[in-house]
Amino acid sequence: MEAAALRRENTQLRQALVSRPVIDQARRADGGRGCSAEEAWEVMVEISQRSNTKLRQVAEMVVASTSGDHLPDSVALQLPALRRFGIGRAAER
Fold first, then answer.
1. Cα(36)–Cα(29) distance, integer angstroms
2. Residue 62 CB coordination number (10 Å)
3. In terms of Cα–Cα distance, which of 26, 21, 42, 37 is closest to 87?
4. Are 59 and 23 in contact (CB under 8 A)?
5. What is Dmax (Cα atoms) for the chain?
6. What per-residue confidence (pLDDT) applies to 30?
7. Average pLDDT per consecutive 10 residues, the chain (93 residues; last block may be shorter)
8. pLDDT score recorded for residue 93
9. How many Å apart are CA 82 and CA 41, to the nearest integer?
10. Distance CA 55, CA 34 (A)
């Protein structure tokens, strides 16, 4: 029983290590528009929960949107939260 729990924890920690860089990058994607890293985190968590999308995927979309990529409908529907993050215009294209 304990070995199985340790394996699960190990898997979760490995996934977190892989996801962390893109989440950190998304937290800094504000481009100086006044959104702190903590506010960006809160917005991404809100979008993740409302759109039933993994936080890592939301972060990847946020980073991609800074280059002009379109957001999927499930995320773009969260435009009020996205505007707080400063990327609403990219989502509306």
1. 10
2. 29
3. 26
4. yes
5. 51
6. 60
7. 86 78 78 69 84 86 78 70 56 41
8. 40
9. 12
10. 22
Q: How high is the pLDDT of residue 52?
A: 87
Q: Is 30 left (phi over 0), alpha (psi -120 to 50) or beta?
A: alpha
Note the pTM of the prediction, 2 decimals. 0.61
Burial of 83 from C-beta contacts in 10 A (0-12 / 13-18 / 19+): middle
The residue among 43, 47, 45, 40 whose CA lies nearest residue 26 is 40
Number of Cβ atoms within 10 Å of the Cβ of 85: 24
CA–CA distance, 38 with 30 (Å, rounded to integer): 11
Q: Can you tell me the distance from the alpha carbon of 2 to that of 27, in angstroms, rounded to the nearest whole number?
A: 35
